[in-house]
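Pasting as-is:
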Amino acid sequence: MRLTDGTSAAPDGKRVQRRSALFLVATSAVYLALLLYMDQGSDILARLADLIGTLMACVMIVMVSFMLRYQRWHLALRAQGHTDIQWRKGLQAYLAGFAFTVSPGKAGELLRIRYFGRMAVPPSTVLGTFIYERGQDLAILTVLGMAAAALVPVFGTLAGLVLAALAVLCLASRWPRLRALLSSLAARMPGTRPRQLAHFLVDGLSQAGPLLQPRVLLPGLALGTLAWLLTAAAFAGLCVAMGVPLAWQHALGIYPLAMLAGAASFVPGGVGTTEAAIVLMLAALGAPLDVALTIAIGIRLATLWLAIAVGMLAMLGLELQASRNDTH
């Protein structure tokens, strides 16, 4: 299967959506079951109910961070010549990509390809912008996480892996020979779906290259850093509300470090691994286990599961709009 501009596609979008939806339902059910199990004797749900005001404040802060992250995406599209995209419609298409955050593969990016395609944005441009965004996020989270690096003995190894990945990304986006080598390696991967996904990502690297120019890169880094600082502030506020005041370096670095741990686990959305990292770091600072669990689940409700809910609503709205247009 080929995308409209010749870029290799991932598997059929509709089939991926169905499978991703089933995976999301299964993951949500397991997450809820584990939450109910952990609630026995620890009253996590009761604690979360008492924190409803704080959680709503976290939600508002995180929503602002989503808009900042989209503004980075919007500027990247403009830098690639797509200057006529309405900000609100683009935001809706961007948020729809969050719908299947906990699904394997890149189902969210397939959704963005579908919806930005309606605005005449080629699939390769969407994919290249995604790679540019993810690369910046890895760099920002690593820098912020350095503030709390003392809590994670393997931080040096984790940072080294991130730097190596960023170096490969930057070189491959600029050097056709390296992209050819990566494409050759992707062709040797076992399984049809992993090969398709690997080719899908390699094909986007050439599009990401022009976005590494300072006039695009620096504003993007500023917007991304502000967005993740807001999320770290929401986490710190939740800790204070639970009676766990943090030193500035821990307030700044714990959540970014947990996000890196989740990414390194290769678990979709970092489900479970990000929460475990938060609990371990808070426990290292002396927080009781039940309090640390409540904080970890609370911030994930206000970030990961909020993103999924917002993404689902955005996707539903876009599909309803398409249905109405088809009937006229």
